[in-house]
Amino acid sequence: MAVPRNALKKWEKVRQYALGLPSATEEHPWGETVAKVNKKVFVFLGVDDGSYPLGVTVKLTDETAHAHALSCPGAEPAGYGLGRSGWVSIPLEPAGAPSAELLCDWVEESYRIIAPKRLTAELDAR
């Protein structure tokens, strides 16, 4: 199953943005791509090999952002009980999926929730 090009481009933009945040690292637990800060995941990027629909999972504790993310086509609280603490899975392939810019805003919010204060201060100083 081929991944739609626009979804793949969006995914790559979000991945690059996430990895550009202070002290962010990429890891591949469970064969999935994740971005971590301080050994903690702040965005799940899934797999980009077409074996599973392309999407991102972020932690959003701001009620407005959380509700907005959940209103996206196909979005749902993340599995494994993560949804209870604000994690939202957002697919990138459906028509009406959020823009790369909006996804990057959500990735940054997720980063700010997970990252230590000194790193969010470094981000603010940019």
TrEMBL record:
Entries under Gene3D superfamilies matching the protein: 3.90.1150.30
Record-linked SUPFAM superfamilies: YjbR-like (SSF142906)
Domain of life, per lineage: Bacteria
InterPro entries: YjbR-like_sf, YjbR/MT2646/Rv2570-like
Protein's name according to its UniProt entry: MmcQ/YjbR family DNA-binding protein
Organism: Streptomyces thermospinosisporus
